[in-house]
UniProtKB/TrEMBL annotation:
Naturally occurring in which organism (per UniProt): Thermococcus barophilus (strain DSM 11836 / MP)
Domain Archaeal Nre N-terminal: 19-284
BP term (GO), one: DNA repair
Domain Archaeal Nre C-terminal, first and last residues per copy: 297-406
Record's signal peptide: none
The entry's keywords: DNA damage, DNA repair
Entry-linked InterPro entries: Nre (IPR033167), Nre_C (IPR006979), Nre_N (IPR006978)
Function (record text): Involved in DNA damage repair.
Pfam families: Nre_C, Nre_N
HAMAP family, per database record: Nre (MF_02096)
Name of the featured protein: DNA repair protein
Length: 410
């Protein structure tokens, strides 16, 4: 497996021969996306309807980059920043959406100061549930490149912000005014908003903008995504622990944006594990792909998901919602295989959505674990034995059954 970009190989290939083994050239695809929008975003003054959207960086914390994202388009632009509605879109569609969102960035201390006019405007934008006509003035024309991100949706063109103004009143629900003005802990506010069925990425935006919690601080977008998904996941886990277990082994599968998701539910008390492999030829793959994983039992994960990082919380939340809706608990094993078709990271939302889509696509029900694993083996490219050797959940079962017994019928 070559490196993500190998200068010698790229010079020989020039995007035509696909010598890296990928189905499409990631360099050329990003170039095409940028060129397709260059004419309308290559300006210092941008007027349009923000989806609404903001971004908070993490570099330099506690002094971070923050800014509104405004496209040179008016009208209903919500589709540009609504990941949970991108289920029928391609990676190219998403890169194009994000390349239309011009970010005017400014530096700010994470401790929110009400004396900062531009920050107050950004916070008002964040609270809106509808696109808001906005105007940004940049110090120079934005740098035209799309930077894919394994956590947040890709960041598009950006430049230093000189001024930002909302040119119409944002639509802010009364419940949001109540939560923002009340002295609630951030966790309480997140659960309250989730219970009221506010969009998950709307809650993430509020947290990023420093609008939730007793001690108000800006929160980098990447951290906000994990914090919101983890907080909701913990809340749902407490609920499903009260329910009876499912009755059979259940297997679900879906392939989404070059990611394969197999979800195995076992008729046992709650535990969760994510097993992940970046296959040979994928962005972060190697000549000998390795299984990485994180796991938890009914008490929750210890610390942070160090190996699978944000993917863990996104996948877990989708399965917990599925079980909560059924009023059942189960032991959960999620397999994620990343293929070369996933040529540009677009954020953990695709994991959240990919697992949700898998859970709508049942493969079958089985009386035994071995029968279920036989089917898993047919769905995945990486050797099942490698997963079994790594899995904490399956090792727990080895106390009752040896690995050789697992494999004897494969």
């Amino acid at each position: 497996m070559m490196q993500l970009f190998n200068s010698r190989l790229c010079a020989l290939c020039k995007g035509r021969k696909l010598l890296c083994g990928r189905p499409t050239c990631p360099i050329l695809e990003r170039f095409r996306v940028v060129k397709s929008v260059e004419r309308i975003v290559n300006r210092r003054e941008i007027f349009g309807s923000s989806p609404p959207s903001i971004f908070v960086g993490e570099f330099g914390y506690p002094r971070v980059r923050i800014g509104p994202l405004v496209p040179p388009i008016e009208g209903n632009t919500s589709y540009l920043d609504n990941p949970l509605k991108w289920e029928n879109k391609t990676i190219n569609d998403i890169l194009k959406y994000r390349s239309l969102l011009v970010m005017g960035e400014t530096k700010a201390d994470v401790k929110v100061s009400k004396s900062q006019r531009i920050l107050s405007e950004i916070q008002e934008l964040a609270m809106s549930i509808r696109p808001v006509d906005s105007e940004i003035l940049l110090k120079r024309k934005p740098i035209l490149k799309v930077l894919p991100n394994e956590f947040a949706p890709p960041v598009g063109p950006k430049a230093e912000l000189l001024d930002f103004e909302l040119t119409e009143n944002p639509r802010i629900p009364r419940k949001i005014d109540y939560v923002v003005s009340d002295e609630l802990k951030a966790e309480e506010a997140i659960i309250k908003l989730y219970t009221w069925e506010f969009d998950e990425y709307y809650i993430i935006r509020l947290l990023s903008a420093g609008l939730l919690g007793i001690s108000r601080k800006l929160v980098p977008t990447r951290w906000s995504i994990t914090a919101v998904q983890d907080t909701i996941g913990k809340h749902l886990r407490k609920e499903i622990l009260k329910y009876d277990t499912i009755n059979e082994f259940e297997l679900y599968f879906y392939e989404f944006l070059g990611n394969r998701y197999a979800v195995l539910l076992m008729p046992e008390s709650y535990a969760f594990e994510l097993l992940e492999v970046w296959l040979k030829g994928s962005l972060f793959g190697s000549e000998e792909p390795q299984v990485i994983h994180d796991y938890e039992d009914w008490r929750g994960i210890r610390g942070y998901a160090e190996e699978t990082t944000g993917a863990y919380y996104a996948a877990r939340l989708s399965v917990l919602e599925f079980l909560r809706n059924r009023k059942r608990q189960a032991r959960i094993l999620v397999f994620r295989e990343v293929t070369p078709k996933y040529y540009a990271p677009v954020g953990v939302w695709q994991i959240r959505l990919g697992v949700k889509k898998a859970l709508k696509n049942p493969v079958g029900k089985f009386d035994t674990l071995q029968e279920a694993l036989n089917e898993v083996k047919k769905l995945l490219e990486h050797p099942l034995e490698k997963y079994l050797e790594k899995s904490w959940l399956l090792k727990m079962r080895k106390k009752q059954m040896t690995l050789d017994e697992f494999l004897k019928n494969f």
